[in-house]
């Protein structure tokens, strides 16, 4: 496995929710990606579509193959189809 955002596979990975956990994003396969700790922390509570425009993501993803960048961009339109847990959750 590698970080979905920067492509690194030589660091410990975490699980990131595409639809934020705090916004009711479920812990299901369609809503989870592997992310290195640094990218996960940098993304924080940023919406996925905003994250794809974030200066940090643009910098680290520049080293990715174009096909990998394209896969990240194609995820954004699918996010509205992911069911939400009713109500907002508080941060852990």
From TrEMBL:
Residues 3-45 form the HNH domain. One of its GO terms (molecular function) is endonuclease activity. PANTHER family: OS07G0170200 PROTEIN, SLL1193 PROTEIN. This is HNH domain-containing protein. It comes from marine sediment metagenome.
């Amino acid at each position: 496995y590698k970080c979905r955002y920067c492509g690194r596979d030589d660091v410990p990975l975490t699980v990131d929710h595409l639809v934020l956990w705090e916004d009711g994003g479920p812990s299901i396969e369609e809503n989870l990606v592997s992310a290195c700790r640094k990218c996960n922390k940098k993304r924080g509570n940023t919406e996925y579509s905003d994250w794809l425009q974030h200066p940090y993501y643009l910098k680290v993803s520049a080293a990715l193959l174009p096909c990998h960048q394209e896969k990240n961009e194609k995820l954004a339109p699918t996010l509205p189809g992911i069911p939400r847990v009713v109500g907002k959750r508080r941060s852990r």
